[in-house]
TrEMBL record:
Residues 11-71, 85-138 form the CBS domain. Keywords: CBS domain. Transmembrane segments: none annotated. This is CBS domain-containing protein. SMART domains: CBS. PROSITE patterns: CBS. PANTHER family: CBS DOMAIN-CONTAINING PROTEIN, CBS DOMAIN-CONTAINING PROTEIN CBSX3, MITOCHONDRIAL. It comes from Siansivirga zeaxanthinifaciens CC-SAMT-1. InterPro entries: CBS_dom, CBS_dom_sf, Diverse_CBS-Domain.
């Protein structure tokens, strides 16, 4: 029955993750390569933060006269993943219901939730995952 669908049934698995010591250039490369908008930051597979593509945009200059790549390199060498990431991230357990994930995303204005199993990163559920699910069932 659809009202009992678990988050683990619709989440993205094999999640791309960053470590706090990774460089912002790596984050940008991952966003572009995998066409994703959110990357959990982990320490020993435990979620400690989240970096979004919009976080990178916030620290970059919108319009510059210099080469954009050169400007990004200066900015990326100024900040660390730990400085840019959102800390105290809300997560959801793999056995939570899809409706619970939808409520959290709607109420808190998030676009992605890391999914955990026994405290360890297991997947990620995004507003896109929810929309695809709701379109499929309705």
């Amino acid at each position: 029955m659809r009202e009992h669908t678990l988050v683990s049934e619709i989440m993205s698995k094999n999640v791309i993750a960053l470590k706090r010591g990774d460089e912002l250039e790596r984050a940008e490369m991952l966003f572009n390569k995998f066409k994703i908008k959110h990357i959990p930051v982990v320490s020993s597979d435990v979620v400690i933060g989240m970096v979004s593509y919009s976080d990178l945009l916030k620290i970059s200059t919108a319009e510059v006269t210099a080469d954009e790549h050169d400007v990004n390199m200066v900015v990326y060498n100024t900040f660390t993943i730990e400085q840019v990431m959102t800390k105290n991230v809300t997560t959801i357990k793999h056995d939570a219901l899809v409706i619970d994930a939808a409520r959290i995303l709607a109420e808190k204005g998030f676009h992605a939730l890391p999914v955990t199993r026994d405290g360890i990163l297991d997947g990620i559920v995004t507003t896109r995952d929810l929309l695809k699910y709701f379109v499929r069932i309705y």
